[in-house]
Amino acid sequence: MPMLPLVPTSGRLELRSLALEGEKIILIVRTCGDHASCPRCGQPSARVHSHYHRTLADLPWAGIPTHISLWSRRFFCDTADCPRRVFTERLPGVAAPHAHRTDRLRDWLVHTAFALGGKPGARLLRQLGIPVCGSTLLSYLRAQTLPAGPTPRIRILSVDDFAFRRGCTYGSILVDLERHQVIDLLPDRSGTGFAAWLTAHPGVELLSRDRSSEYAAAARHAAPQACQIADRFHLLRNLRDVVWRVFKRHAKLVERVVAPGPAGPVGCAVPSLTRLRLDREGTRERTRAEMAARFTAIQRFVQEGMSQAAIARTLGLNWQTVHKYAAYATPPERRHTSRQPSVFTPYQGYLLGRWASGCRNARQLWRELVAHGYPGSYRHVARLTGYLRHQERMGAGLPSSPSGMTPAQATGLVVARPEKRTADENAVLERLGKLHPEMQVTLTLFASFAALVRERSPAGPASRVEEWLAEARASPVPELAAFAVKLRQDLEAVLASFTLPYSQGQTEGQVNRLKLLKRSMYGRAKLDLLRQRMLQNVVG
Question: Distance between CA atoms of 235 and 341, rounded to whole angstroms?
Fold first, then answer.
């Protein structure tokens, strides 16, 4: 690997001396040569007008900041019709006019800005001996121009949205699936902006997208020749949401089935001391009462024939809350989310056994638990023994950990591939189907649709999809019937997804990369900066 020269490569520079001033190295450099060309008319001139001095920051030496003290010259321009009478000699390859850094140092800053962004890049450069501000790096990033040249024809395009600020502002990312490259970023996810881009870039033959109706309508309007492909993952995800809503309506029935695994036999309630939050028990009861009262009020207004918008105004609720509660058959209940096992879990049986044998001393119980390997503190054991005393005084038993399944857990079992399910999981699905006819229909139709999506067989998918749509429309499950209506509206794209190999997988990966860039920029990720970093070949 060749070594870098002490001064930037140029036949017009001459190193005179070195100096060490404080904590930086100074290179004393002068220009040489007997003439220079006028930057306006291009004619050479040998008549020197004067000398001037400028200081340039250069690459560091072993982490020590280095500066070039450059003595340059001014020349007379003797061309009669040139408006420039005096000019300074240019140093191409060394530094731009009026620059405070050499070209090779600027290249370092540009590459670092593309790779790391502002603040992270500035921290790295300071460790290398280049004191620079993060905003300076971003200014270099903004000043770069994208590579010029003819735009290649895009045959297979993918479009998806991404969040500038989640829940507030979104943009669109366009990916060439043939070249595996990001083509452009759009400032919004509207159909108008995407249609304008398609009009400016004709020739798209295949368009992969999610279930967005905005993108679909824009493509039909601006690129009617393009075959649209609905993403298979989003198809299954939409149907999974349907299954979850059905299970949510029948949550009381779903709770009767125990999740497969170490939960124990059906109907087994395990005494639990590992998730006690005594300060929240009253709050939970108040929350349940409020949810039940809200459910009763909404159902009463629905039976009276009031619209959901009017109910929302009357009760001061969001319309989405009213819509959700109106679909329930019973008052909803908030369930605990699954958590990692507590460090106390292996020792709770020993504590309960010693308590039943008559030991009431918290300090003694803690010492015995520590002797058995318990790594926790005395305070936690004292809190649990205090709770046990309270339960004895009140004549109440110990709390039982919930043994039934949640709608989300049941949905997860349904979505899993059949070949990856265990015998216990298949048995649980059979029990779920026997609880209610709607649940049985939902499980059957999901399994048949998932088989269509996963097989991707080009042999007659249209007839099989039509049969599935007819069954879903005729089913007693309103959620499935609504899903079938939306699916028929996008039927051509759905059928294309069963026969063509393209999907949104590559685009989701590019969105992941974009999120990484956005978060590494600490909130400075505006569209121009994101577009520069995503479209430049400097970062791959």
Answer: 34
Q: Maximum CA pair distance of the chain?
A: 113
The one-letter amino acid code at 483 reads F
Report whether 200 contacts 179 (CB < 8 A). no
Model confidence at 269, pLDDT cuts 50, 70, 90, reads very low
358 CA to centre of own chain: 54
Instruction: Give the other-Cβ count within 10 Å of 111's Cβ.
Output: 14
Q: Are 157 and 174 in contact (CB under 8 A)?
A: yes
| pLDDT at position 231 | 93
CA distance 141 to 52: 31
Question: Where does the pLDDT of residue 148 fall: very low under 50, low under 70, confident under 90, or very high at 90 and above?
Answer: low
Same domain, 357 and 380: yes
| Residue-range definition of the domain harbouring residue 226 | 156-231+503-535
Is the residue at 138 inside a domain? Answer: yes
Q: Is residue 22 part of a domain?
A: yes
- Same domain for 207 and 238? no
Contact 36, 89 (CB under 8 A): yes
Pairing of strands 227-230, 36-37: unpaired
CA separation, residue 125 to residues 9, 130, 538 (Å): 23, 5, 18
- Is 275 in the same domain as 394? yes
| Whether residues 413 and 477 fall in one domain | yes
Q: Is 149 within a domain? A: no
Strand 13-21 and strand 24-31: pairing? Answer: antiparallel
